[in-house]
Amino acid sequence: GREExxxxxxxxxxxxFASSDGARIVTGHDxxxxxxxxxxxxxxxxxxxxxxxxxxxxxxxxxAPLGHCPA
Length: 71
Fold this sequence. Notes:
alpha+beta
């Protein structure tokens, strides 16, 4: 399905931008930080997960510290 196709594409990405809902669909994790970490396990891409009024989290690459930007 859609989730499986997205997971297959992650290793090819150079940047990943996802809403927290989209990241949850792909990873199964509710929190944007946990979802960003799970995505980083599948790609070396820079990752941003947006969380509406909670702002956004990002990782510059797999293993990088998790950053947060308020809304």
